[in-house]
Batch of 2 targets.
Target 1
Amino acid sequence: MAKTITKRSWAEPYRMKMVELLKVTTKPQRMKAMRDAGYNTFLLHAEDVYIDLLTDSGTNAMSDQQWAAFMTGDEAYAGSKSYYNMEKAIQKYYGYRYVIPTHQGRGAEHILSQILIKKGDYIPGNMYFTTTRLHQEMAGGTFVDIIVDEAHDPNSEFPFKGNVDMNKLEALVKKVGAEKIPYVCIATNVNMAGGQPISIKNLRELREFTQKHGIRIIHDMTRVAENAFFIQQRESGYEKAKIADIVKEICSLTDGATMSSKKDALVNIGGFLAINDWEIYEEARNLVVAYEGLHTYGGIAGRDMEAIAVGIKESLSDSHQKARVGQVEYLGEKMLEYGIPLVKPFGGHGIFVDAKAFLPHLSQDEFPAQTLAAEIYIDSGVRTMERGIVSAGRNSKGENYHPNLELVRFTIPRRVYTQAHMDVVAESAAMVYERRNKIKGLKMVYEPKFLRFFQARFDKLK
Ligand code: F0G
């Protein structure tokens, strides 16, 4: 019988003009590569990877328009035209007043933390991010998690797992006093929760509360357009709103932002600090010259600033986000068909596999997510990343954090892979799932001091 149409498909709003060939490896080659990499997917040579889902950071495919803009980059040391183009785009599409370019997101986090945080301060946030928290701690602050409990539960289908639990924030203000809280750090589409959005309603409540207490909101806007897509899909009153307008509204509820343009903004490098307050801007202009470069290039080339300006505009297109998040969803649905335990709802930038549920026979100290990422690479050459106990690191007393979420992130670069690639990825995860009972854990044999997940080495447990 002929099939009837129940749902219309999305498709990429672009076509391919140039392709990059991939290397296909054998299983023995991959076993050796993984051993040489100390069972850490960050230490693999990218050449040995078939489908690279390590991160969506800096791995985007630029459009012909971005490449065209790239060629017009003004590489003047001071006052580059490209800086002013980027500044104009940020002011127009995000609405922030002053802009300091940085080499990437963490450059902006560094400068902002140094300016706003004093020793003994507390920085509440909707879940931590690795580099963000590290810069807060290096400046003498303590991060406090104020995200809703649902965010820590991979099985909760709450639509806004990026929301702030206002009771948690209120309790912190009561305990330490508003003067010890220089700002609340709000990420849009919370990475570590699995790419989960915050609602406008929650952001408004937060704005009202923080204004009452004289506390700023600093926005980690790395994936703001993906967050806006979810608001359009899920928040009542926003069904007909344009992503561009939702993004502008989100930004208007905050006082400034740190941005890694390597994600949403569809480029390969770059970031910025944006702020509405002149005095903070002035201080940032002083610091940026010490750490990044002059305040009109901040560690990136003129051509990169041109590509960012175009990328910001492209990222706000409704059809772009529909295909971008649609592809992530496609992979999630496929993996669910094979019974693989995933964080739900699906995230904006990737699918997060629940490694505790995938490998229940391993304790968290045997690094289930690290183990699973290594196994998937060995199976198919697909590279993923650990987001669990290794990423969480240690507290200031040197004790391991034991996060509830022990995840493997299958992160989808923007405009890079096809639906057929997603099929291969889901099948690989399914193959590993079939032999999950035979999988042994890992032990850490080398641990770096900061952000250990990047460079730690492991050995197989016997
Ligand atoms: N904030 C968030 C939410 C991020 O995801 C990242 C980077 C940063 C800040 C720092 O930006 O890398 O440009 O210095 N996330 C990458 C990832 C590394 O793979 O999730 P950066």
Target 2
Amino acid sequence: MGNKDIKKTSKERVFSGAQPTGNMHLGNYLGALKNWVRLQDDYECLYCVVDLHAITTFQDPKTLRANTREAAAAYIASGIDPKTSILFNQSAVPAHAELAWIFNCVARLGWLNRMTQFKDKAGKHKERASVGLYVYPTLMASDILLYKADRVPVGEDQKQHLELTRDIAQKFNNDFGVDFFPMVEPVILKEGARVMSLKDGTQKMSKSDASELSRINLTDDADTIAKKIRKARTDSEPIPGDVESLAARPEALNLITIYGALADKPRADVCTEFAGKGFADFKAALSDLAVAKLSPITAEMARLRADPGYVDGILKDGAGRANALASPILKDIHKIIGLT
Ligand code: AMP
Ligand code: TRP
């Protein structure tokens, strides 16, 4: 077998991560985790719990430790196989923070000033935001490029950060006259890429929403899931036969989106199936579907919660494997830059 053949059969690399800042929810599952699971067979995957990103806003240490374990449990319960994929937490591989510093020296202030997530998270008092929150995207670029990952599955909200990652890779390559970092490709799901709050169809379903009724957590039992769907905001109109007619009905559109994503069906098909029905009927069907799809995950979450040593062991093993991949790449970076 020639070199070319070896390259052709070697798998492309995937990297993704989520912050351990609270309960993992249906938006995380449909927008991220479900996609991650699907990629495991075709790619070499690294899935990271990004605890260094979490501390860009204050985290209580005990809660952070618990949430890190909980996020790892959600990955496993959703179907990430820790033998096939590398599952680890970011701070266990110090090279992430080191490469982020190097990228702070590559990225330009003007680029970071354009990041909408910083503007959203810092709000009106941006002088009081941590410097870490401002350079959050350079740490994210380092997560990805430390492994020279080719593909990054994320929700739509992360697209701008991936564009910045490409800019950093390109500038690094140009500045040092090398062809070192690849241009990463985002992998974004069409259906279900953006799951909205069950209480306000214009807001993203989020870990930080004060209302528990706004989201379905991956730790919710069947009764809680059913109750939250029953209480979800809707309108009194029946379901139309086409998706376009839902444009001005964000809550209705969101429930159709969730149904489609859970059933792996286009939204148009869901509309055809339920055309003319009211939301009482539709919610009953959605509730059955959500419980059927989520109950194996919530059951596994409960099992993993009772066995923290098992989850910690997986994270430790993953960190060792991630470190082994990162070390030679970081060494090459040092050499390119002139660090001795
Ligand atoms: P976060 O919860 O912000 O740490 O996000 C972890 C992953 O879940 C990222 O890939 C996000 O894009 C995705 N995600 C978070 N919230 C949602 C949502 N409401 N709908 C779809 N994807 C989401
Ligand atoms: N910023 C991402 C989010 O909030 C999480 C993240 C950190 C990430 N590093 C990453 C996602 C690298 C993909 C690749 O959702």
